[in-house]
Design a protein that fits this description.
By secondary structure, the chain is an alpha/beta fold. Helix content is 38%, strand content 14%.
Length: 398
């Protein structure tokens, strides 16, 4: 049986992008087969290249968000560099940018301007707070938007609010940009026209706040910060084990509580005790409930605790470190790891989570060096070697 091509083969994306939100969005497009031309500054490129050196000398953020792309280094402040970018966009299907608010418009790279000039183009503007409103020009880094969107207020312990451990606002904006591009391409397939796509980090993350937001808006109270515990279910928390690990368990109903009490805690009397027999009672006596569970978990290693809980039909999970995830047996068993090329050699990476049966495996191309594809890309526009040499000598390209 023949293998189907990747769904975005033949689609060209040009991106003027930095940090996470736009690069992560366009990496999804590259994974699905699109050609992604990443336009970078000459002086260091995407500033995420300099965040750290953890990936064998490369920045972990950059490696994560930029595999499978072509890097073209242009000075957009020089009219010749800007003209080259506009020529690239004229031949593209998609353009994505997340420059500071107003910068793209000054360069004629905002979605409205580009789509007016190129009706088939899908052009994406990603910003912190959107093009209008009192926050339009406010600086918008991930942690700032996590605060403005209320995520920090519901994350942490009763004593202290904390940010999410991943750039949640950037990722939310990236995934809506990704799905917005796909939707716009489908529409173009039926109408022949592309159009602008606007994504705000605040709006993306506020949508992800879903349940707490609707709870409060429609008459509920502000949700309590409960660490990894559940605010209205008990026991539903992480407990220390004898070997220094932690195991989270979740009792979803009173039948499961009876099994937990009898088969794991070794205290069958708690199944009928009115202080524990129902979830409402267990929540009302949460401290005593947690003490009973914690006492039992402390007698087991993490492996023993998981084995006993699973044998009793109780949902559970280890509190893994990031290093544990890199060696997770489920990811290994499902063959989710690949190697991608980079300027420092092969680097381990996860297959994207979109699995398209019957098709080619996701494209996981190399992480590009800054300006690695400048000359080849510009030659395809008709530039001669002499012209390229002049532009390089003048500091317009690298």
């Amino acid at each position: 049986m023949s293998t189907q091509p990747l769904p975005l083969e033949g689609i060209t994306v040009v991106a003027v992008e930095q940090a996470v939100s736009a690069p992560f969005a366009t990496r999804q497009l590259a994974d699905l087969g699109a050609r992604v031309v990443k336009v970078e500054r000459l002086d260091g490129g995407d500033f995420a290249r300099g965040y750290d050196t953890a990936a064998r000398g490369l920045a972990s953020h950059f490696v994560w968000c930029n595999r499978g792309k072509e890097s073209v280094a242009l000075d957009l402040k020089d009219p010749r560099g800007l003209d080259l970018l506009h020529r690239l966009v004229a031949d593209a299907d998609v353009f994505v940018q997340n420059l500071a608010q107003g910068a793209a418009a000054r360069l004629g790279l905002d979605a409205a301007t580009l789509c007016a000039a190129h009706p088939r183009l899908v052009a994406v503007d990603i910003s912190g707070y959107g093009a209008g409103g009192p926050y339009a020009h406010k600086r918008a880094y991930d942690m700032l938007v996590q605060c403005e969107a209320g995520l920090v207020s519901v994350t942490g312990t009763p004593e202290r609010a904390v940010k999410a451990g991943i750039p949640a606002a950037d990722i939310a904006a990236a995934m809506y940009a990704f799905s917005g591009v796909l939707a716009a391409l489908v529409r173009r397939g039926t109408t022949g026209r592309g159009g602008p796509v606007e994504i705000s980090m605040l709006e993306a993350l506020a949508e992800w706040l879903g349940h707490p937001l609707h709870h409060v808006m429609h008459g509920g109270t502000e949700p309590a910060r409960t660490g990894v515990a559940h605010a209205v279910i008990a026991p539903y928390d992480a407990y220390d084990t004898a070997d220094g690990g932690q195991v989270l368990l979740s009792v979803q109903n009173d039948r499961e509580w009876r099994r937990l009490a009898e088969l794991v805690l070794g205290r069958p009397e708690l199944a009928q005790d009115p202080d524990f027999a129902t979830n409402a009672a267990r929540v009302a006596h949460r401290t005593r409930t947690d003490e009973a569970v914690a006492r039992a978990m402390a007698a087991f290693t993490a492996d023993e605790a998981v084995a006993r809980l699973e044998a009793a039909g109780i949902a559970c999970a280890r509190i893994n470190t990031v290093a544990d995830v890199a060696a997770h047996p489920q990811l290994t068993a499902r063959g989710r790891w690949r190697e991608v090329e980079s300027p420092v050699g092969p680097l381990r990476a996860l297959l994207p989570p979109i699995n398209l049966g019957g098709g080619q495996e996701a494209y996981m191309g190399a992480v590009p060096a800054l300006g690695e594809h400048t000359c080849a890309t510009l030659r395809a526009l008709g530039m001669t070697d002499e012209q390229l040499a002049e532009l390089r000598r003048d500091g317009v390209i690298a």
